[in-house]
Design a protein that fits this description.
Nitrilase/N-carbamoyl-D-aminoacid amidohydrolase, alpha/beta, seven-stranded mixed sheet, 15 helices, 2 domains, six-stranded mixed sheet, about 500 residues
Length: about 500
């Protein structure tokens, strides 16, 4: 095929991957997109330059639509981020080409090496730039299916590798469609069996266990408009919306007459004050806590000198602060501005984020008081939920439910919000815990340890959802391994695959 046609095929493959990722989420199309890209790489004339170009086009077609939410929030980031990630994946394709030259490797080997290289590029996105941007990953496309259960063992990187290899198998079957017999297709079938075996293991893998106890949680969503920056909003409006939503509890709209609520969860950033301990809203919340007879976990933004903190504070019915977790993983260009001085000298609108958040340092666990004891709950505040290890930080420290208080009001459309829903499903599978997501404007919901969603409140709607959430203990295999081990295993697999290519006596081109 002509070079231009192959370039368009790789670009189309990337676009189809984006279609497979939420908000559209048509996951079989994602597999087809990967297959198109693999076909483009294998039908092109072998050269490093071509490999890099096809990999970069594939990734740009993938990330430009899947990161479209950036256009409304940070237009410059929308231009730079897809281009940067395209360069990362272009480099991955080039490395794969160098490690598995077409003249020395089999088709299956090339597909495996290509999948490993691109998965390692995804690993790089987990940590760079500015601490990582793990959005729009392949794993999100299958988060709502049983295919994602392999995350219990290998996490999001392993799910991404599985998806890429599955698309590669489709491409290989097409490329070998005129070949017959076990001998020529043996490696393809072995790879297919490996993919099925991985899925079987994911279904059977440990996923924690119920303690037999329940915690009744009310997740509050104040509702309101989207696309509103903090500097353009009145903090009191947010408080009033959430007080109005909380008033629905036991008012007939949300009845809990069969038992008391054990915890009321307010989203991230719902209270923005200089000092929460002496603020008027604290007294208003005490009144609500006494009316409902339950402690509150409140998303509080407080002044900290010239900067601010972003915390989740547990307050009991008397107004006493029981526990507190300060957000560790901050949002670049959302909660702090990397390279602020340089960007300001270039005329960038850094005044949209006039102050930087101070990062916390404590384990991501809060204690929720009960009549005779307290319950440890893991916390991942908003952006942190996109990072598996931030969620597991609290779970591995004993958290029996994972809370995700979040604020999506700055974003326009549903791209990021839908990806966060899929991310919460993955975190539930990886941790073996229920996830309670409470958002200012949506989505608020419950997710069980198998990734199933319950009681989702639509975006912009004011409401409260109440459910008895099972307390769970135990750990998944992935919670022991972590991303560092998985990345090291991927590197080892890539090295072994490359070694086999270099030392085999004959090749199948």
């Amino acid at each position: 095929m002509k070079r231009c046609a192959l370039a368009m095929l790789a670009l189309l493959g990337g676009v189809l991957v984006a279609v497979g990722i939420p908000p559209l989420g048509v996951w079989p199309i994602m597999l087809l997109g990967v297959a198109f890209y693999v076909l483009a790489t294998q039908l092109s004339k072998p050269s490093g330059r071509t490999a890099f170009l096809l990999g970069a086009l594939f990734a740009w077609g993938w990330f430009a639509p899947a990161l479209g939410w950036m256009w409304h929030l940070v237009p410059g980031g929308f231009v730079v981020a897809p281009l940067l990630f395209a360069l990362m994946h272009g480099a991955a394709a080039l490395i794969a080409y160098r490690l598995a030259p077409r003249a020395q490797s089999t088709l299956t080997q090339r597909i495996v090496v290509l999948a490993l290289a691109h998965t390692l590029a995804e690993c790089l996105r987990f940590i760079a730039p500015f601490g990582g941007v793990p959005l729009a990953g392949l794993a999100l496309g299958v988060a709502d299916t049983r295919l994602a259960h392999v995350a219990r063992i290998v996490g999001p990187l392993g799910v991404s590798l599985w998806v890429f290899l599955a698309g590669g198998v489709l491409a290989e079957f097409w490329l070998r469609r005129r070949e017959f017999g076990w001998r020529t297709r043996r490696a393809t079938f072995v790879l297919l069996v490996g993919l099925v075996a991985a899925q079987t293991a994911g279904q059977l893998a440990p996923s924690g266990r119920d303690t037999g106890q329940l915690l009744r949680i009310a997740a509050v969503q104040g509702g309101g408009p989207q696309g509103v920056l903090a500097i353009d909003s009145n903090p009191r409006d947010v408080i009033d919306r959430h007080l109005a939503a909380t008033a629905l509890v036991d008012s007939g709209s949300v009845s809990v007459t069969q038992g008391n609520v054990d915890l009321v969860l307010w989203p991230e950033n719902t209270v923005d004050v200089r000092d929460f301990s002496v603020s008027k809203v604290r007294q208003e919340l005490v009144a609500e806590a006494q009316r409902i007879d339950a402690p509150f976990a409140i998303g509080v933004t407080e002044d900290a000198g010239d900067n601010f903190t972003n915390a989740q504070i547990v307050m009991d019915q008397s107004g006493t602060e029981i526990s507190r977790y300060d957000k560790v993983k901050r949002v670049p260009y959302g909660e702090y501005v990397p390279l602020r001085g340089l960007l300001q000298s270039l005329g960038a609108p850094v005044d949209r984020i006039p102050r930087d958040a101070i990062a916390g340092s404590k384990t991501a666990v809060i204690e929720v008081p009960r009549q005779t004891d307290s319950v440890p709950l893991a916390v991942a505040i908003s952006w942190e939920v996109f990072f598996s290890m931030r969620a597991l930080d609290g779970v591995n420290a004993g958290g029996q439910i994972l809370l995700n208080p979040t604020n999506g009001s700055s974003y326009t459309g549903e791209i990021l919000q839908q990806q966060q829903v899929a991310t919460s499903q993955l975190r539930a599978l990886e941790s073996g815990r229920w996830v309670v997501q409470a958002a200012t404007t949506g989505y608020s919901m419950f997710v069980d340890h198998d990734g199933r969603i319950f009681d989702r409140i639509p975006i912009g709607t004011q409401g409260v959802i109440v459910r008895d959430i099972p307390l769970r203990t135990g750990r998944t295999i992935y919670s022991y391994l972590g991303d560092t081990f998985i990345a090291a295993a991927l590197l080892l697999m890539l090295a072994v695959a490359s070694w086999r290519v270099r030392h085999q006596t004959s090749g199948d081109t």
